[in-house]
């Protein structure tokens, strides 16, 4: 969980190969493809990746891309030509892998997987700008100046920017693939298979929208209203968000979900103070406009358990498959108001 400081300011298809007389057929997502058709499709996808990922080599490129991105999310990957750090402290990394050659090979494979994930997400997420910069083993002066400007000290580094402001970054290859997908979902709202957050989680940008959500009546007043309180740069809020989306999709008719980005404007800053939100993520539970409980932290199991407990007190049966998994991460971050 995130303690607030200062101002409250998706799957690679599985291919099954089998031989038929004179031709190889690939079965993908319920379709049959000849090898030739599959090759043409992959070439088209590669072309889309080339069009979606743009490469920056110096500060002038970077400043131009920032301007052209406008209000869109900008995702920047800075990778090494052959270097790939885990992101662990040097001593911890030494004990983590004593076999230097094995560590180097694993790092190389890990960074190759990150590059593939970056390209796939860039291909599928049309509303964000994706940039890449590769640092040579002997960096050029332009590359060094760009990395210094960006504050890049670990390769690879992943950064999320919007309107010229760095929102968040991940340093090192460890968990980077997960954080890339989570960051794009959290900031842009795009998930795998064309799923968009806005179809399931309501974004609340003002006090009026908050009041309408928690007090508004629907076809079933027993539906629990869940408000996810988050901050822009709080890693626990980013890490838990896939679970929030999954719950919103699976709990349709059982619980309704919305999100408040508490540092997006002064009105929402005051809302968080009014509800005594000191740590994020915080989940506020409402029924008929009244708060009936809350959950603090990013534990998926505890969040699900609390929602089920509140609803079962009304005799409401839980929906099928109401267990949302996920990797354990930092659960909370504390707040102090300026």
TrEMBL record:
Alphabetized Gene3D superfamilies for the sequence: Glutaredoxin
Segments forming domain Thioredoxin: 207-305
Basic residues biased stretches: 329-338
Taxonomic lineage of the native organism: Eukaryota, Viridiplantae, Chlorophyta, core chlorophytes, Chlorophyceae
Sequence segments annotated as region (Disordered): 316-338
Cited InterPro entries: CDSP32, Thioredoxin-like_sf, Thioredoxin_domain
Name by which UniProt lists this protein: Thioredoxin domain-containing protein
SUPFAM superfamilies: Thioredoxin-like (SSF52833)
GO MF annotation: an example: oxidoreductase activity, acting on a sulfur group of donors, disulfide as acceptor
Protein source organism: Chlamydomonas eustigma
